[in-house]
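Project outcomes to date are best conveyed with an example. Our students and postdoctoral researchers have been running inverse folding experiments weekly, and each run begins with a structure described purely in C-alpha cells. The record below, which covers 111 residues, was selected by the lab manager from last quarter's runs and is presented without edits.
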C-alpha cells in the first residue's frame, strides 16, 4: 500500500507551473508525436486496505497548515473516528501514521 501511496503522491506533486506532475505526463502522452519512455506500472492497491486509503484521503483534506504542512494530529483522528462512528484497529492507525509520514516526506521534498 505504501508503494501505491508513494506513486500517487509523486503524480500529485506540483511542478514549477503549479500543475501536478501527473497532469503533465498525461498531457504529453496524448500528443501524437510523443515517444513515451517505458513507464513503471502503478503499484496495486491491496483491496483489503482500500478503506484505510479512503480514510487517509478524508483526513488529509482536513489537515492543518502552518508555515508548512503539518502532520495529522492524533486528536484529529480521534475526532474523525467519533464523527464517523468508526473504530480504527491499531494496525490501521499505524498504517495511517505511515501514510502521513510518506505524504509529508513528498511535500517537504517538493518544497
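After processing, the design step wrote out the following sequence:
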Amino acid at each position: 500500500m505504501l508503494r501505491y501511496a508513494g506513486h500517487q503522491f509523486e503524480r500529485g506533486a506540483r511542478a514549477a507551473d503549479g500543475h501536478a506532475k501527473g497532469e503533465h505526463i498525461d498531457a504529453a502522452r496524448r500528443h501524437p508525436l510523443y515517444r513515451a519512455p517505458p513507464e513503471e506500472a502503478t503499484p496495486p492497491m491491496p483491496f483489503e486496505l482500500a478503506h484505510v486509503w479512503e480514510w487517509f484521503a478524508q483526513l488529509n483534506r482536513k489537515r492543518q497548515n502552518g508555515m508548512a504542512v503539518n502532520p495529522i494530529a492524533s486528536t484529529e483522528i480521534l475526532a474523525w473516528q467519533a464523527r464517523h462512528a468508526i473504530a480504527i484497529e491499531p494496525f490501521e492507525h499505524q498504517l495511517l501514521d505511515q501514510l502521513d509520514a510518506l505524504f509529508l516526506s513528498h511535500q517537504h521534498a517538493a518544497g
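Residues 12 and 109 are 13 Å apart (CA to CA). Helices lie at 2-12, 21-30, 50-61, 74-84, 90-110. The training component of this project remains on track.
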